[in-house]
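Input record, target 12 of the design panel.
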């Protein structure tokens, strides 16, 4: 089968290789010239036989929206656009509506697997019309892991990315739990082999997972994670998950806390915690740590503690 692939970064480039290894013809395009097969969207579309399948694998938001709009002017009725980035499901619905006016079909596909997907396969969560999904199924079969699991037709357009959004929200919570456990192990002098403890959890325990395996790999490569700064970005899915939890009145304290912990990682000196320190000083006379050389505890005395 032929497919056009837009976006040849860490995920897209490996997906191209996996598809080619499965015998598919892939015409790859990216804005940067390194590694691309054609120099423009027009050339990519021209190189594909109709009916075409084009997979978009670029950052969510304006880059994806603009690319979908451009494809709407280049593709023909009966062609398929698969959006495999991390777009919000509401964007999928708008994209599908726009392309439908031109007779072009649209699928959204949440993709999980990261840089390991080339060897292990990618978990795929697809949204769209069943007949359109069936036409693109050989591509999904080549990308997913071997065996029965790893692929789901989650529902209509938007369901794939909604599912991936929740997947990533869960991932936030799991990573935060592992990170907090790691920090406590490091803080306790009684534990002399923290990496060994985490490694021992990777088999036979109820907390084993691929994320735990990856934490052990990271610690083996960089004991104590000395070369890494504790600054963590978020790509949007955690925020969207919490917003949807509010919309549907679903309690989500763990994922919300994990998202807020990421916000906290970006503060060199937390304004909120400065306020807490100042309040403790004001009502209880508790000592505060000053930024200037002279340290001291001002404010009234008192006996109340908190």
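The sequence produced for target 12 reads:
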């Amino acid at each position: 089968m032929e497919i056009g692939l837009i976006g040849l970064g860490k995920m897209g480039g490996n997906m191209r290789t996996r598809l080619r290894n499965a015998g598919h013809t892939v015409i790859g395009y990216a804005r940067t010239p390194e590694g691309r097969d054609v120099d423009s969207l027009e050339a990519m579309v021209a190189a594909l036989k109709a009916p075409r399948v084009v997979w978009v694998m670029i950052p969510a938001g304006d880059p994806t929206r603009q690319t979908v709009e451009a494809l709407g002017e280049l593709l023909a009725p009966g062609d398929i656009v698969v959006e495999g980035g991390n777009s919000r499901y509401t964007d999928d619905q708008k994209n599908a509506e726009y392309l439908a006016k031109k007779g072009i079909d649209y699928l959204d596909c949440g993709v999980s697997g990261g840089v390991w997907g080339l060897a292990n396969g990618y978990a795929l969560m697809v949204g769209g019309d069943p007949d359109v999904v069936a036409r693109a199924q050989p591509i999904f079969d080549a990308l997913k892991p071997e065996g029965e699991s790893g692929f789901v037709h989650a529902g209509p357009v938007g369901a794939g990315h909604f599912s991936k959004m929740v997947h990533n929200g869960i991932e936030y919570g799991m990573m935060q739990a592992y990170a907090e456990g790691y920090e406590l192990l490091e803080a306790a002098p009684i534990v002399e082999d923290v990496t060994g403890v985490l490694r021992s959890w990777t088999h036979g325990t109820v907390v084993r997972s691929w994320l735990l395996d990856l934490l052990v790999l990271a610690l083996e490569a960089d004991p104590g994670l000395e070369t890494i700064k504790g600054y963590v970005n978020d790509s949007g899915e955690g925020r969207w998950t919490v917003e949807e939890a509010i919309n549907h009145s679903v309690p989500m304290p763990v994922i919300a806390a994990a998202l807020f912990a990421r916000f906290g990682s970006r503060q060199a000196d937390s304004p909120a915690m400065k306020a807490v320190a100042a309040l403790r000083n004001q009502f209880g006379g508790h000592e505060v740590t000053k930024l200037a050389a002279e340290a001291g505890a001002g404010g009234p005395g008192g006996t109340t503690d908190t």
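The radius of gyration is 24 Å.
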